[in-house]
Amino acid sequence: METLVPTAICRHRRIRIETGREVEFIDLTDRIEALAVEAGIHAGVINIQSLHTTTAIVINEHEPLLLTDFDTLLTRAAPRDASYRHDDMDVRTVNLTPGERRNGYAHCHALLLGSSASLNVADGRLQLGRWQRVFLVELDGPRARDISIMILGEGVR
Amino acid sequence: METLVPTAICRHRRIRIETGREVEFIDLTDRIEALAVEAGIHAGVINIQSLHTTTAIVINEHEPLLLTDFDTLLTRAAPRDASYRHDDMDVRTVNLTPGERRNGYAHCHALLLGSSASLNVADGRLQLGRWQRVFLVELDGPRARDISIMILGEGVR
Amino acid sequence: METLVPTAICRHRRIRIETGREVEFIDLTDRIEALAVEAGIHAGVINIQSLHTTTAIVINEHEPLLLTDFDTLLTRAAPRDASYRHDDMDVRTVNLTPGERRNGYAHCHALLLGSSASLNVADGRLQLGRWQRVFLVELDGPRARDISIMILGEGVR
Question: What would the mean pLDDT of B76-82 be, rounded to a whole number?
Fold first, then answer.
């Protein structure tokens, strides 16, 4: 008869996503679940962190029309055609790069949504409700985007 | 003389809340503190995760009039009587269930607030400022709602 | 030849910030990185939690004009001159203190931004993208503000 001994799990992974549109919700759930299985985590947390200032990580339902409602919500809060001081290149002097984008609205959208989400793992399974899915939200694409994923807790061996 | 040895803590709990109104802030703080004590955690983090797409977990002050201000804020950002494509049953084909609710606005409110919160524990106590309380926010109730709570860190024995 | 053995890290720190303006973004990144080094963390998560209900912890770009855009965004969502029931001292009876501030709008701003952020650590380094910085957001200052920081994961010795 085997005895299962808990063992500390602390595993980091990065994934890169090539986004295809200006605004896009990319469902990461299957990838996160595969990483949890690969790490052998039985219980703990997985922290999913975007490494960009015009993307977000959110959890909600994967229903295509709802995702367009989310875009409408963000645009109402910070319209694309409003005036942003971040985009005023006559005044701005900080963090300027060649080909600088006019993306003040996208930073605002990212600020409202947040750049990371922590999900629980229990009994070897990612804890997600029936309708919950994890998304990378592209807010100023298309671009290559990197996501840092930390898997922390205990496994069994 | 006893020596205290740190021991790894990784404990998962689920709690169910029966909400009573369409929009409701349910103070979870005492329940979270009781779970921390029960788990014997001395230091670490507690990740509180709602398992629904029309609820949120937030931390703010438990002052009843302020909670109505929060409802007003959300309604201003995503009005109940606005048009949501998620609610257009003539067009929508995905994730349809019998008795589907018109709740596009509630998903938008949940998106803005976020579905989880991580609280620190130190010296055996949940780290909360004087006015901070942890809430489950019901945004499309009343319903039965499940919350996943992961307690991760170290205890002493 | 040395063998590196992973060792559990669970370290808590508090820092106090004296804010100087009503609304202010205080860049905490260098302080967080110094705490990570001091703790000797090789991999894991750092949870940064504000202990107040009119502050927030956010991650975005440190470009001064963008920070004024963020203030504009918050003011649009919850205007300073709108009416908040939290500020109606003729009606309110809960959590009243001497010199109570009219700060319903600041609580609303804090609610939208969130009171904590979890950052990953891997290969001994805080995982932050090129433009990402961690901010304490003062929303009702100036005041003394406390931040709780939990560093959880593994080091090597």
Answer: 96
C69 and A85 within 8 Å at the Cβ level: the answer is yes
**Spans in chain C with pLDDT lower than 50:** none
Min Cα distance A93 → chain B (Å) is 31
pLDDT at A100 over 90: no
Q: Which amino acid is at A70?
A: F
Q: 3-state SS string over chain C?
A: CCCCCEEEEEEEEEEEEECCCCCEEEECHHHHHHHHHHHCCCEEEEEEEECCCCEEEEEECCCHHHHHHHHHHHHHHCCCCCCCHHHCCCCCCCCCCCCCCCCHHHHHHHHHHCCEEEEEEECCEECCCCCCEEEEEECCCCCEEEEEEEEEEEEEC
Instruction: Using the predicted structure, report yes or no on whether residue B157 has a pLDDT greater than 90.
Output: no
CB within 8 Å: A69 and B148: no
- Give the model's pLDDT for residue A98: 85
- Under 8 Å between Cβ of C118 and B114: no
Q: For residue B32, is it left (φ>0), alpha (ψ between -120 and 50) or beta?
A: alpha
pLDDT score at B1: 58
Residue A1's pLDDT is 58
**From the list C112, C119, C127, which residue is nearest A112 (CB)?**
C112
The per-residue pLDDT of chain B, averaged, comes to: 95
Measured between CA atoms, the residue of chain A closest to residue B73 is A77
pTM confidence score = 0.96
Dist CA A132 CA A129 (whole Å):
5
All partners of chain A with 3 or more CB pairs under 8 angstroms = B, C
Neighbours of A152 (CB within 10 A): 28
Question: Residues 6 or more apart from B125 whose CB is under 8 A from it?
Answer: none
Which stretch of A153-157, B32-36, B49-53 has the lowest confidence by average pLDDT?
A153-157
> How far apart (Å, rounded) are the C-alpha atoms in residues C20 and C51?
18
Q: Of the candidates A69, A127, A153, which has its C-beta nearest B108's C-beta?
A: A69
Instruction: Provide, as residue numbers in chain C, all residues whose Cβ is less than 8 Å from the Cβ of A108.
Output: 69-70, 73
Taking CA atoms, B146 is separated from A32, A123, B125, in Å, by 22, 16, 24
